[in-house]
Amino acid sequence: MSGTLYGVGVGPGDPKLMTLMAVETIGKCPVIAVPAEGREHAISYRIASRVVSGLEEKRCLNLSTPMTKDPQILTQSYELAAGRIIEQLKENEDVAYLTLGDPTIYSTYIYIHRLVREKGYPAKIVNGIPSFCAVAARIGDSLADRSEQLHIIPSSYQIEEALDYPGNKVFMKAASKLSGVKHTLQEKNLTAVMIENCGLSDERIYQTTASMPEQASYYTTVLVKEGVHD
Fold first, then answer.
1. Deepest in the core among 54, 63, 220, 223, taking most CB within 10 A?
2. Domain spans in the chain, listed from the N-terminal domain onward
3. What is the pTM of this model?
4. What is the pLDDT of residues 164-198, one digit of tens each?
5. Is 122 helix (H, G, I), strand (E, B) or coil?
6. What is the DSSP letter of 213?
């Protein structure tokens, strides 16, 4: 027998958007894991701590990942994180890895999940509300209507070609290239809605491309709707 790893999506920011399954899963696990150097530095922990009672009493694995695109460095980090989790699973302890949004969308967790399963240990995913769904709800509009296509794009990579895709575009974690995103949108005469830190206490909403700042925090999402121009 061994414990089970659970990748738990805690949603986009507002603790009330956590699912019942997420709250129950975290509550039953004696060990939690966070993608940070300490639970106090993990936004996912701070969200869950407002809903899950007794969270501060659980053992915590601090599994920070370096901010790099170097595949070798990242693989080593994932291997180390998987190894530390497996140590707990071998002791028949369940582990809840807390991640923002949903674990299946551009999440560090999924790489650890795959490694744990490859090594023969059970791992499951508990879905959470994705940030872009919360953004759409926050601005009171849909992500896509009828036959419209929807493209989810990681903004830390090439974005210029993506703006030519048909349909609507969601640029996730747009802060690293926000200035370039804004200028490209202006060049193409496209308007966008931007939300910074959706659902958190320091949330900010920008309704037009022109109002978007040149810099923003890491958790920034930009929604571009087809056929909407400045």
1. 220
2. 5-126, 131-229
3. 0.92
4. 889 999 998 877 778 888 888 888 888 899 999 99
5. coil
6. -
